[in-house]
Amino acid sequence: MLPPVLQHLALPVIGSPLFIISNPKLVIEQCKAGIVGSMPALNARPASQLDEWLAEITETLAAWDRDHPGRKSAPFAINQIVHKSNDRLEHDLEVCARYKVPLVITSLGARSDLNAAVHAWGGLVLHDVINNAFAHKAVEKGADGLIAVAAGAGGHAGVKSPFALIQEIRAWFDGPLALSGSIATGDAVLAAQAMGADLAYIGSAFIATEEARAADAYKQCIVDCDSDDIVYSNLFTGVHGNYLKPSIRNAGLDPDHLPESDPSKMNFGGDGAKAWKDIWGCGQGIGAVKAVLPAGELVARLKREYDAARGRLGLAD
Ligand SMILES: Cc1cc2nc3c(=O)[nH]c(=O)nc-3n(C[C@H](O)[C@H](O)[C@H](O)COP(=O)(O)O)c2cc1C
Protein backbone atom coordinates (compact mmCIF):
# COMPACT_ATOMS: atom_id res chain seq x y z
CA MET A 1 0.00 0.00 0.00
CA LEU A 2 1.43 3.34 -1.03
CA PRO A 3 1.65 6.12 1.60
CA PRO A 4 -1.23 8.65 1.33
CA VAL A 5 0.95 11.27 -0.42
CA LEU A 6 1.41 8.90 -3.40
CA GLN A 7 -2.09 7.43 -3.53
CA HIS A 8 -3.89 9.89 -5.78
CA LEU A 9 -1.77 10.14 -8.90
CA ALA A 10 -3.45 10.24 -12.33
CA LEU A 11 -0.77 7.80 -13.47
CA PRO A 12 1.77 5.89 -11.31
CA VAL A 13 4.72 7.95 -12.56
CA ILE A 14 7.45 10.16 -11.12
CA GLY A 15 8.94 12.66 -13.56
CA SER A 16 12.53 12.13 -12.45
CA PRO A 17 15.04 14.88 -11.53
CA LEU A 18 17.28 16.01 -14.39
CA PHE A 19 20.46 17.97 -13.67
CA ILE A 20 20.33 21.45 -15.30
CA ILE A 21 17.12 20.53 -17.21
CA SER A 22 14.36 20.31 -14.59
CA ASN A 23 12.93 23.63 -13.48
CA PRO A 24 9.77 24.93 -11.77
CA LYS A 25 7.82 25.17 -15.06
CA LEU A 26 8.38 21.48 -15.82
CA VAL A 27 7.69 20.39 -12.23
CA ILE A 28 4.46 22.41 -12.14
CA GLU A 29 3.19 20.93 -15.44
CA GLN A 30 4.05 17.39 -14.31
CA CYS A 31 2.19 17.88 -11.01
CA LYS A 32 -0.81 19.53 -12.71
CA ALA A 33 -1.00 16.55 -15.08
CA GLY A 34 -1.19 14.24 -12.05
CA ILE A 35 2.29 12.72 -11.83
CA VAL A 36 4.99 13.51 -9.27
CA GLY A 37 7.19 16.32 -10.62
CA SER A 38 10.75 16.72 -9.39
CA MET A 39 13.95 18.69 -9.78
CA PRO A 40 17.45 18.65 -8.28
CA ALA A 41 17.96 21.39 -5.66
CA LEU A 42 21.28 22.08 -7.40
CA ASN A 43 19.45 23.33 -10.52
CA ALA A 44 18.63 26.51 -8.62
CA ARG A 45 21.71 28.71 -9.03
CA PRO A 46 22.76 30.63 -7.04
CA ALA A 47 21.60 28.63 -4.00
CA SER A 48 19.36 31.51 -2.91
CA GLN A 49 17.19 30.85 -6.00
CA LEU A 50 15.89 27.62 -4.43
CA ASP A 51 13.70 29.65 -2.08
CA GLU A 52 12.12 31.53 -5.04
CA TRP A 53 11.59 28.30 -6.98
CA LEU A 54 9.92 26.54 -4.07
CA ALA A 55 7.69 29.58 -3.55
CA GLU A 56 6.73 29.49 -7.25
CA ILE A 57 5.97 25.75 -7.18
CA THR A 58 3.99 25.71 -3.94
CA GLU A 59 1.98 28.88 -4.71
CA THR A 60 1.14 27.85 -8.29
CA LEU A 61 0.07 24.36 -7.26
CA ALA A 62 -2.00 25.68 -4.34
CA ALA A 63 -3.83 28.03 -6.75
CA TRP A 64 -4.36 25.14 -9.21
CA ASP A 65 -5.83 22.99 -6.42
CA ARG A 66 -8.20 25.79 -5.38
CA ASP A 67 -9.43 26.14 -8.99
CA HIS A 68 -9.56 22.38 -9.72
CA PRO A 69 -10.89 20.67 -6.59
CA GLY A 70 -11.74 17.54 -8.60
CA ARG A 71 -8.35 17.35 -10.33
CA LYS A 72 -5.83 18.28 -7.66
CA SER A 73 -2.12 18.38 -8.44
CA ALA A 74 0.24 15.54 -7.57
CA PRO A 75 2.95 16.12 -4.93
CA PHE A 76 6.40 17.32 -5.95
CA ALA A 77 9.87 16.09 -5.00
CA ILE A 78 13.24 17.78 -4.57
CA ASN A 79 16.39 15.80 -5.33
CA GLN A 80 19.43 16.13 -3.08
CA ILE A 81 22.80 14.89 -4.29
CA VAL A 82 24.40 13.44 -1.15
CA HIS A 83 28.03 13.63 -2.15
CA LYS A 84 31.06 15.46 -0.79
CA SER A 85 31.24 17.69 -3.87
CA ASN A 86 27.81 19.12 -2.94
CA ASP A 87 28.67 21.89 -0.47
CA ARG A 88 25.12 23.28 -0.54
CA LEU A 89 23.40 20.28 0.98
CA GLU A 90 22.77 21.75 4.46
CA HIS A 91 21.52 25.03 3.02
CA ASP A 92 19.24 23.33 0.49
CA LEU A 93 17.78 21.02 3.15
CA GLU A 94 17.03 23.95 5.39
CA VAL A 95 15.09 25.65 2.54
CA CYS A 96 13.19 22.39 1.88
CA ALA A 97 12.30 22.24 5.59
CA ARG A 98 10.80 25.74 5.39
CA TYR A 99 8.51 24.64 2.55
CA LYS A 100 7.83 21.19 4.06
CA VAL A 101 8.71 19.59 0.72
CA PRO A 102 6.51 16.45 0.57
CA LEU A 103 9.06 14.14 -1.11
CA VAL A 104 12.85 14.21 -1.10
CA ILE A 105 14.80 12.04 -3.54
CA THR A 106 18.34 11.31 -2.41
CA SER A 107 21.06 10.13 -4.79
CA LEU A 108 24.61 8.82 -4.43
CA GLY A 109 24.72 8.65 -0.61
CA ALA A 110 22.28 7.49 2.11
CA ARG A 111 22.41 9.44 5.41
CA SER A 112 20.37 8.76 8.55
CA ASP A 113 20.51 12.37 9.78
CA LEU A 114 19.18 13.66 6.47
CA ASN A 115 16.31 11.14 6.53
CA ALA A 116 15.47 12.13 10.11
CA ALA A 117 15.43 15.81 9.15
CA VAL A 118 12.96 15.15 6.31
CA HIS A 119 10.76 13.01 8.59
CA ALA A 120 10.74 15.82 11.16
CA TRP A 121 8.84 18.08 8.75
CA GLY A 122 6.53 15.24 7.63
CA GLY A 123 8.26 14.48 4.32
CA LEU A 124 9.17 11.12 2.83
CA VAL A 125 12.55 10.10 1.42
CA LEU A 126 12.98 8.02 -1.71
CA HIS A 127 16.55 6.86 -2.29
CA ASP A 128 17.87 5.71 -5.65
CA VAL A 129 19.94 2.53 -5.86
CA ILE A 130 21.54 0.42 -8.58
CA ASN A 131 21.70 -2.86 -6.66
CA ASN A 132 20.16 -4.79 -3.78
CA ALA A 133 23.07 -4.17 -1.37
CA PHE A 134 22.63 -0.38 -1.68
CA ALA A 135 18.87 -0.88 -1.28
CA HIS A 136 19.41 -2.62 2.09
CA LYS A 137 21.78 0.14 3.23
CA ALA A 138 19.32 2.89 2.26
CA VAL A 139 16.44 1.29 4.17
CA GLU A 140 18.65 0.60 7.22
CA LYS A 141 19.46 4.33 7.24
CA GLY A 142 15.77 5.25 7.22
CA ALA A 143 14.73 5.80 3.59
CA ASP A 144 10.96 5.35 3.18
CA GLY A 145 11.04 4.21 -0.42
CA LEU A 146 13.45 3.10 -3.12
CA ILE A 147 14.09 3.90 -6.74
CA ALA A 148 15.63 0.95 -8.56
CA VAL A 149 17.82 2.38 -11.31
CA ALA A 150 18.24 -0.39 -13.87
CA ALA A 151 20.35 -0.72 -16.99
CA GLY A 152 19.48 1.71 -19.76
CA ALA A 153 18.56 4.64 -17.51
CA GLY A 154 19.58 8.15 -18.49
CA GLY A 155 22.29 9.89 -16.48
CA HIS A 156 24.03 7.74 -13.91
CA ALA A 157 22.66 4.24 -14.47
CA GLY A 158 23.16 0.73 -13.23
CA VAL A 159 23.84 -2.44 -15.17
CA LYS A 160 21.12 -4.70 -13.77
CA SER A 161 18.16 -6.00 -15.68
CA PRO A 162 15.01 -4.41 -14.22
CA PHE A 163 13.56 -7.92 -13.77
CA ALA A 164 16.46 -8.98 -11.54
CA LEU A 165 16.62 -5.72 -9.59
CA ILE A 166 12.92 -5.46 -8.80
CA GLN A 167 12.64 -9.15 -7.93
CA GLU A 168 15.58 -8.99 -5.51
CA ILE A 169 14.37 -5.83 -3.78
CA ARG A 170 10.72 -6.93 -3.63
CA ALA A 171 11.78 -10.20 -1.97
CA TRP A 172 12.29 -8.26 1.29
CA PHE A 173 11.04 -4.66 0.83
CA ASP A 174 7.32 -3.90 0.79
CA GLY A 175 7.55 -0.08 0.86
CA PRO A 176 7.18 2.30 -2.08
CA LEU A 177 9.33 1.16 -5.00
CA ALA A 178 9.85 2.97 -8.31
CA LEU A 179 11.57 1.52 -11.37
CA SER A 180 13.92 3.70 -13.40
CA GLY A 181 15.45 3.03 -16.81
CA SER A 182 14.20 3.34 -20.39
CA ILE A 183 10.53 3.80 -19.50
CA ALA A 184 8.93 6.04 -22.11
CA THR A 185 5.52 4.48 -22.86
CA GLY A 186 2.36 3.79 -20.88
CA ASP A 187 2.80 0.10 -21.68
CA ALA A 188 6.17 0.17 -19.90
CA VAL A 189 4.60 1.92 -16.88
CA LEU A 190 2.16 -0.99 -16.58
CA ALA A 191 5.02 -3.47 -17.09
CA ALA A 192 6.90 -1.88 -14.17
CA GLN A 193 3.84 -2.46 -11.97
CA ALA A 194 3.45 -6.04 -13.22
CA MET A 195 7.07 -6.68 -12.23
CA GLY A 196 6.41 -5.54 -8.67
CA ALA A 197 7.23 -1.82 -8.71
CA ASP A 198 4.62 0.71 -7.58
CA LEU A 199 5.72 3.53 -9.81
CA ALA A 200 7.62 4.23 -13.01
CA TYR A 201 10.43 6.82 -12.87
CA ILE A 202 10.76 8.63 -16.21
CA GLY A 203 13.54 11.05 -17.14
CA SER A 204 14.74 11.23 -20.73
CA ALA A 205 11.28 11.42 -22.32
CA PHE A 206 10.70 14.67 -20.38
CA ILE A 207 13.82 16.26 -21.86
CA ALA A 208 11.92 16.47 -25.18
CA THR A 209 9.22 18.70 -23.67
CA GLU A 210 8.66 22.40 -24.21
CA GLU A 211 9.18 23.21 -20.52
CA ALA A 212 12.52 21.36 -20.17
CA ARG A 213 15.54 23.64 -19.85
CA ALA A 214 17.57 21.96 -22.59
CA ALA A 215 18.94 23.27 -25.90
CA ASP A 216 16.63 22.73 -28.89
CA ALA A 217 19.34 20.58 -30.51
CA TYR A 218 19.36 18.28 -27.44
CA LYS A 219 15.56 17.91 -27.57
CA GLN A 220 15.65 17.19 -31.31
CA CYS A 221 18.47 14.68 -30.83
CA ILE A 222 16.21 12.74 -28.45
CA VAL A 223 13.43 12.77 -31.06
CA ASP A 224 15.84 11.60 -33.79
CA CYS A 225 17.77 8.93 -31.86
CA ASP A 226 17.10 5.49 -30.45
CA SER A 227 18.89 2.96 -28.23
CA ASP A 228 21.68 2.43 -30.80
CA ASP A 229 22.70 6.05 -30.23
CA ILE A 230 23.32 5.66 -26.48
CA VAL A 231 26.74 4.88 -24.96
CA TYR A 232 27.52 3.86 -21.36
CA SER A 233 30.69 5.51 -20.03
CA ASN A 234 32.29 6.81 -16.82
CA LEU A 235 34.48 9.33 -18.64
CA PHE A 236 32.45 12.45 -18.00
CA THR A 237 31.70 12.37 -14.24
CA GLY A 238 33.64 9.40 -12.87
CA VAL A 239 30.42 7.39 -12.48
CA HIS A 240 29.01 5.24 -15.28
CA GLY A 241 26.09 6.78 -17.12
CA ASN A 242 24.29 6.75 -20.47
CA TYR A 243 24.84 9.53 -22.99
CA LEU A 244 23.82 10.49 -26.54
CA LYS A 245 26.57 9.59 -29.01
CA PRO A 246 26.00 12.62 -31.31
CA SER A 247 26.82 15.00 -28.41
CA ILE A 248 30.09 13.12 -27.82
CA ARG A 249 30.99 13.38 -31.50
CA ASN A 250 30.19 17.12 -31.37
CA ALA A 251 32.72 17.39 -28.52
CA GLY A 252 35.39 15.86 -30.80
CA LEU A 253 35.45 12.38 -29.22
CA ASP A 254 34.72 8.95 -30.68
CA PRO A 255 31.80 7.53 -28.62
CA ASP A 256 32.70 3.97 -29.64
CA HIS A 257 36.28 4.26 -28.30
CA LEU A 258 36.10 6.27 -25.07
CA PRO A 259 38.83 6.01 -22.42
CA GLU A 260 38.04 5.15 -18.76
CA SER A 261 37.83 8.05 -16.31
CA ASP A 262 39.72 8.82 -13.12
CA PRO A 263 37.16 8.32 -10.27
CA SER A 264 38.92 10.89 -8.04
CA LYS A 265 37.81 13.58 -10.52
CA MET A 266 34.12 12.92 -9.80
CA ASN A 267 32.40 16.27 -9.61
CA PHE A 268 28.78 17.36 -9.36
CA GLY A 269 29.15 21.10 -8.94
CA GLY A 270 31.26 23.75 -10.70
CA ASP A 271 33.04 22.11 -13.62
CA GLY A 272 30.79 19.06 -13.28
CA ALA A 273 27.99 21.07 -14.87
CA LYS A 274 30.00 21.57 -18.03
CA ALA A 275 30.05 17.86 -18.78
CA TRP A 276 26.24 17.72 -18.60
CA LYS A 277 25.77 20.85 -20.72
CA ASP A 278 27.85 19.57 -23.63
CA ILE A 279 27.60 15.80 -23.19
CA TRP A 280 23.93 14.97 -23.21
CA GLY A 281 22.71 12.38 -20.71
CA CYS A 282 19.98 10.11 -22.04
CA GLY A 283 18.45 6.67 -21.46
CA GLN A 284 17.79 3.90 -23.97
CA GLY A 285 13.99 4.30 -24.11
CA ILE A 286 13.87 7.32 -26.42
CA GLY A 287 12.83 5.39 -29.53
CA ALA A 288 9.31 6.08 -28.22
CA VAL A 289 9.81 9.87 -28.33
CA LYS A 290 8.53 11.18 -31.69
CA ALA A 291 8.09 14.91 -31.06
CA VAL A 292 8.81 17.72 -28.62
CA LEU A 293 5.53 18.24 -26.73
CA PRO A 294 4.22 20.22 -23.78
CA ALA A 295 4.84 18.05 -20.67
CA GLY A 296 1.08 17.80 -20.04
CA GLU A 297 0.61 16.27 -23.51
CA LEU A 298 3.37 13.74 -22.88
CA VAL A 299 1.62 12.67 -19.66
CA ALA A 300 -1.69 12.46 -21.55
CA ARG A 301 -0.05 10.18 -24.15
CA LEU A 302 1.42 7.96 -21.41
CA LYS A 303 -2.02 7.75 -19.78
CA ARG A 304 -3.76 6.79 -23.05
CA GLU A 305 -1.17 4.07 -23.67
CA TYR A 306 -1.40 2.86 -20.06
CA ASP A 307 -5.20 2.59 -20.23
CA ALA A 308 -5.02 0.82 -23.62
CA ALA A 309 -2.45 -1.67 -22.27
CA ARG A 310 -4.68 -2.37 -19.26
CA GLY A 311 -7.59 -2.91 -21.66
CA ARG A 312 -5.59 -5.36 -23.80
CA LEU A 313 -4.76 -7.38 -20.69
CA GLY A 314 -8.36 -7.32 -19.45
CA LEU A 315 -7.42 -5.09 -16.49
CA ALA A 316 -9.59 -2.09 -17.43
CA ASP A 317 -12.00 -0.90 -14.71
C1 LIG B 1 20.26 14.47 -18.40
C2 LIG B 1 19.98 13.72 -17.16
C3 LIG B 1 20.26 14.29 -15.94
C4 LIG B 1 20.01 13.60 -14.75
N1 LIG B 1 20.24 14.22 -13.56
C5 LIG B 1 19.92 13.59 -12.40
C6 LIG B 1 20.08 14.26 -11.16
O1 LIG B 1 20.51 15.40 -11.07
N2 LIG B 1 19.76 13.58 -10.04
C7 LIG B 1 19.25 12.30 -10.08
O2 LIG B 1 18.95 11.74 -9.02
N3 LIG B 1 19.08 11.66 -11.25
C8 LIG B 1 19.39 12.28 -12.40
N4 LIG B 1 19.20 11.63 -13.61
C9 LIG B 1 18.65 10.27 -13.61
C10 LIG B 1 17.13 10.32 -13.71
O3 LIG B 1 16.57 10.93 -12.59
C11 LIG B 1 16.51 8.93 -13.94
O4 LIG B 1 17.07 7.96 -13.09
C12 LIG B 1 16.67 8.49 -15.37
O5 LIG B 1 16.52 9.57 -16.25
C13 LIG B 1 15.63 7.42 -15.72
O6 LIG B 1 15.93 6.79 -16.93
P1 LIG B 1 15.35 7.31 -18.35
O7 LIG B 1 16.09 8.55 -18.64
O8 LIG B 1 15.69 6.19 -19.27
O9 LIG B 1 13.89 7.54 -18.18
C14 LIG B 1 19.46 12.30 -14.80
C15 LIG B 1 19.16 11.73 -16.04
C16 LIG B 1 19.41 12.42 -17.21
C17 LIG B 1 19.05 11.80 -18.53
Automatic annotation (TrEMBL):
Record-annotated membrane-spanning stretches: none
Keyword Lipoprotein included in the entry's annotation: no
A Pfam cross-reference name: NMO
Keywords: Flavoprotein, FMN, Monooxygenase, Oxidoreductase
InterPro entries on file: Aldolase_TIM (IPR013785), NMO (IPR004136)
Any one GO MF annotation of this record: nitronate monooxygenase activity
Top-level taxon in the UniProt lineage: Bacteria
Family per record: Belongs to the nitronate monooxygenase family. NMO class I subfamily.
Protein's name in the database: Nitronate monooxygenase
Species per Swiss-Prot/TrEMBL record: Rubrivivax gelatinosus
Origin organism lineage: Bacteria, Pseudomonadati, Pseudomonadota, Betaproteobacteria, Burkholderiales
